[in-house]
């Protein structure tokens, strides 16, 4: 409980609003400010992995994008294990996205979960950080 209180500052705020033709949801200590910034920002085209995900979702009814990297950092912040600190310090993207489409008659619905190569690269960076931390923690302890 103390770790959650320290991390979140006691309460967590969640805000949602419709901004033009988009639904925006923010959460966290500065959720209100983030939502205001999203509403005030100009609608533009994303870049990088998000742009590739949107291109792959073209023609679908729904699209969801999630970056697991910040979630791992959040979970690591709750742990006392030194290896968890390495995970939190990695700051890498681990994106996944899902699309939903139907046949127009409501008889067939297709849900696709895509794990792009960037997700494996991000997870690999986390694993390398963990293996480096494990090697450093075990240095000089062999045979003692």
Spell out the key features of this protein:
single chain; 144 residues; three-stranded antiparallel β-sheet; two-stranded antiparallel sheet; 6 helices; 5 strands; 46% helix; disordered C terminus
Question: Could you explain how this protein is built, in words?
Answer:
- There is one protein chain.
- About 45% of the residues lie in helices and about 25% in strands.
- It is built from six helices and five strands, in the order αββααβααββα.
- The chain has helices at about 1-10, 30-40, 50-55, 70-75, 80-90, 115-140; strands at about 15-20, 20-30, 60-65, 95-100, 110-115.
- A three-stranded antiparallel β-sheet has the order 3-4-5.
- Strand 1 and strand 2 (about 20-30) form a beta hairpin.
- Helix 5 (about 80-90) runs antiparallel to helix 6.
- The longest helix is centred in the last third of the chain and has 22 residues, at about 115-140.
- It is globular.
Short overview:
Helix content is 46%, strand content 24%. The protein is of the alpha+beta class.
Number of strands: 5
Q: Compute the number of helices.
A: 6
Q: How is the biggest beta sheet arranged?
A: 3 strands, antiparallel
Proportion of residues in β-strands: 15-25%
| Unreliable spans | 140-144
The share of residues in helices is 40-55%
Tertiary shape: globular
Mean pLDDT: 78
The assigned structural class equals alpha+beta
List the helices and strands in order.
Answer: HEEHHEHHEEH
Rg: 20 Å
Instruction: Walk across the major sheet and give the strand order.
Output: 3-4-5
- Terminal-residue CA separation: 38 Å
């Amino acid at each position: 409980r103390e770790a959650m209180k320290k991390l979140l500052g006691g309460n967590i705020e969640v805000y949602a609003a419709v901004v033009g033709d988009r639904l925006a949801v923010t959460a966290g200590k500065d959720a209100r400010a983030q939502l205001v910034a999203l509403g005030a920002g100009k609608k533009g085209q994303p870049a990088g992995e998000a742009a590739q995900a949107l291109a792959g979702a073209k023609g679908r009814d729904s699209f969801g994008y999630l970056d697991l990297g910040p979630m791992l950092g959040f979970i690591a912040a709750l742990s006392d294990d030194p290896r968890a600190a390495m995970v939190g310090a990695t700051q890498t993207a681990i994106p996944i996205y899902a699309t939903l489409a139907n046949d127009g008659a409501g008889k067939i619905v297709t849900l696709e979960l895509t794990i792009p190569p960037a997700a494996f690269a991000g997870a690999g960076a986390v694993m390398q950080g963990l293996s480096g931390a494990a090697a450093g923690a075990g240095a000089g302890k062999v045979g003692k």
